[in-house]
Amino acid sequence: MHNSLILFFVVAGALIFDFTNGFHDTANSVAPTIATGALRARTAVLLSAVLNLVGAYLSLKVAATIASSIVDQTQVTLTVVLAGLAGAIAWNITTWYFSLPSSSSHALVGGVVGAMWAKAGSSGILWHGIVAKIAVPGIIAPVIALGVAAIVTLLIRYVGAKHEGPHRALADRVAQISTLGLQSVAHGTNDAQKTMGVITLALIANGTLATGAGAPSWVVLVCALAMGLGTMTGGWRIIRTLGHGLTKLDNNQGIAAQLSSAIVILSSSHVGLPLSTTFVATGSVVGTGVATRGRKVRWSLASRVIAAWLVTLPAAGLVGALSYGIARITTGSWGCLILIAVVSTYLGLIVMRARRNAVTAATVNDPWKTELEIAAQA
Amino acid sequence: MTPVTTPAPSTPLIDWTVLGHILEYSIGISLATALLFVIITWGLSFVDEPGVKRVAGSMMACLSSAALVGAVAWGFFIITHKG
Q: Does the beta-carbon distance from A259 to B41 stay under 8 Å?
C-alpha cells in the first residue's frame, strides 16, 4: 500500500513535470514564428502542441538513459525519483516566472542527482556521465547554434536582397512553418520520452513491470497528452523573451533563427548527440542578432539567461536534496504527502504572483520594455 | 608473477569528431538550403516569360521545391528515428 501510494505520486509528479516541460519549451519552436507574424500566436502554439504529441508517439526507443548515465540505477528508489521530480518542477516554474528559457532536461537531471546525493552521497552519482552527457553538450549547443545562426542570417540577407517579390513572402512562411514543425516533433520525441523513461523506471522499481520492459501504451498516451497540453497552454512569458527580449527579430532573423535551430537539432540527432532544444533555440536567436547590423542583442538579459543555465543543475539539485529530506522526515507515506503539500503551495504562490503581470497571446508581441523603462513608467 | 592488466578504455568528455560532424552537417545543410532557395526564386522569376524559358523556370522551381520538401521529410525521419 505504501509503495503503491508513492508510485501514484511519482506518476502524477512525472506528468506534472511533463506538462511544465511542454509550456516551458513551447518558446523554442514558436517564438520567432510568432514574433515575425508568420503565424498567429494561438495557431502557432496549437500546431506545435499537435506536433509535440505526434513526436511523442513517433519515436521508437524509450529514453531511460537519463537515469542510467547520471545516477547509479541500483540505488534509485521511488522516493529519490519523486524528490528529483519535485526539484525539476520547482525550478521549471521558477524560471518560467522570471521569463527565462532554461533546459527542463537539466532541471530533471539536477533534481534526480540532488535527491540521490541526499540519499547515498556522491557514490550514487556518475560524475563522468553528468559532465560528458549534460554539462559539455550544454556549453557546446548554444555556441554551435550561435555560429550557424550567424552564417544563416548572412546567407538569408544575401539571398533575400536579390530575390524580393511576391513569391518571397510565401516562401518565408513555408520555411518558418516547416522548421517550427521539425523542432516541435524533435521536442516531443526527445522530452516526452524522458518522462516515459522515468515512469517506466518507477514501475520497474515497484515491481509492476519486469526489468528491461518497455513503456506500456498507457504511459506513452498520458505522457504525450501531458506534453501536448503543456505546449498548448503556451509559455507566453518565455516566448516573449525569445521573440522580443534578447533581440528584436525582423523577418529575415526570424527565418534564420528557426532554420538554424532546425538544422542544428537535425544535424546533432543525425550524428547521435541530440542537443537541448532550449540551448539551440536561444543560441540561434542571439546569433541572428549578432549577425545583423544595427540590431542590438540585449546582453544584460542574455547574461541572465546564461546565469540561469549555469545555476539550473545546482539549484534543481539543491531542491531535489531538500525534497528528499522532507520526504524522509517520517517513515511511510507521510513524508511524501508533506513534500507534495510544500511543492503544491509553492506552485500556487508562483502562479498567483505571475498573474499580476501576466503575458498572454494578446500581449506577447507588445514592444519590449527594459527594466529602466518599466521603473520610469512606474 | 604480476598479472598484466590493460587499462579500461575511457570515453572522452568531448568527442571532437562528433562535434566536427555536427558543424559540417549544419553548415552544409545551410548552404544547400540557401542554394535551393536561390534556384526556386530564380526559376519562379521566369514563370511570366513566354516559351521555353517559362517551362524551364517552372521545372527548375518544381524540382528544387521537391528537393526542399524531401529535405524536410528526411529531417522528420532523422528526428524520429535517431533523435
A: no
